Amino acid sequence: MTDPLTTLSETRVFGGRLKRVRHLSAAVDCEMTFAIFLPPQVEAGATVPVFYWLSGLTCTDENFTQKAGAFRVAAELGLAIVAPDTSPRGEGVPGDPDNSWDFGLGAGFYVDATEEPWARHYRMHDYVTRELPALIEANYPVTDRRSVAGHSMGGHGALVCALKHPGFYKAVSAFAPIVNPAAVPWGEKAFGSYLGPDRDRWLEWDACALITTATERLPILIDQGDRDGFLEAQLKPEALVAAAEAVGHPVTLRMQPGYDHSYFFISTFIEDHLRHHAAALLG
Amino acid sequence: MTDPLTTLSETRVFGGRLKRVRHLSAAVDCEMTFAIFLPPQVEAGATVPVFYWLSGLTCTDENFTQKAGAFRVAAELGLAIVAPDTSPRGEGVPGDPDNSWDFGLGAGFYVDATEEPWARHYRMHDYVTRELPALIEANYPVTDRRSVAGHSMGGHGALVCALKHPGFYKAVSAFAPIVNPAAVPWGEKAFGSYLGPDRDRWLEWDACALITTATERLPILIDQGDRDGFLEAQLKPEALVAAAEAVGHPVTLRMQPGYDHSYFFISTFIEDHLRHHAAALLG
């Protein structure tokens, strides 16, 4: 049913195993590489829930695994971690003709593009919410209990995944998410190309819009550094807090004094997020 | 007395501050960049001891700070961390004419070169044991209690620094160190160029040789993965254990099953090393 998986590398870390795996994705119609961490509990025969991590602009599957420092706590709690790439890649996949870092390759924005030339490959939402979990659950010793988190563009992705698929994820959280992409420059640039000029259609991929009609009130945990250079122009977490309050959706926004947009910020607070997810995944 | 320091970046992490700093080094006669982590205790007015980290081949000051996951425990314990670059760099600094990764730029081997064209700049031992600590202690809220650790080429560096400077460091440890560079290909290539063909002079920079005449018996902690691809040809930690046993020098070699040479290995065991160092630095 699933295409064969090619394990590119396998590395021992915190008593578990980190693998980089390549496969041919039907959803995005190209080869994709993801990272999966299997905690030590699986070597004792356990099946474990899965924490999906969606990275931000310019990242691959490797940024989180190398820089977040997440494996110590994931090994303690018995969580698998899956980190996909941030866009389709490879021969035949179009990138931004202007070669910018905030659109195209490394910047799939976790939407399903409808416009040419993006519609064939730029279907990252379908990939991360349907094809990838099915593949993970068919091939690794994991349960069907899942959660999703991410950073910046990937924080947007995590919120949209959870809000669009009630019941599919047990927990959701984000670091410095783009909560209102339909109303900020990064989102306007990406959505205008991937989804076309009709801004009403952008709202299907905007957490601030989706939260108003969500049928499941999954609590959202957000950490945001107050020295994040993208805070005012691109991130605007207070917009999500306002939208959530209007409908009674539980959101915890923690403004972290002095922190920026980097993985140093993520590494500082990832333990809190993993414990937040574990409480729901293992409860 | 010291040249001015230029702070390139300052990032909040685990309640402390990570800075990248550039300065003109007299020891290596070029501009150098180092990283310094100051734990939260210094913002409350404390002065703290310093853990020096020496990285391996191809690394800069950034590998350890981004990948080792050391700041959580350093913040808890109240340790500063200083991570220098692995060689002189920049305009006018000669690199390997063959452009290989295991000699020249990124591969200073923490020796003081005597041969041309290396002798002017490749004086990393003088830099890390004399100029850099003096600069750190003159410019940051730290004490004169220091320790040193490193990885691979930097593990060699840490051992040699501690063995050549009795009393200067309170603790020493290493991950997958090159313990006997005078007798393995990496060391033969580097020492033959930096130090010349007389192999007797190489022994001044070889931990297995230095340990036999050490006047201080500082306990050495070593972690080594048994799936490390460099273990048999380049690292040979059992050679140091044998040399240490012959003179009664305390060495703890922990062979870690399944681990390789990567920062995933380092991240798994760095907490143990930091606690080992803290016991001596804070005791």
UniProtKB/TrEMBL annotation, chains A, B:
Any one Gene Ontology molecular-function term assigned to this protein's record: S-formylglutathione hydrolase activity
The EC designation for this entry is 3.1.2.12
> What keywords were assigned to this record?
Hydrolase, Serine esterase
What catalytic activity does the UniProt entry give for this protein?
S-formylglutathione + H2O = formate + glutathione + H(+)
Keyword Hydrolase belongs to the record: yes
Matching entries from SUPFAM superfamilies are given as:
alpha/beta-Hydrolases (SSF53474)
Q: What family does this belong to?
A: Belongs to the esterase D family.
Stated role? Serine hydrolase involved in the detoxification of formaldehyde.
**Name of the protein described by the UniProt record:** S-formylglutathione hydrolase
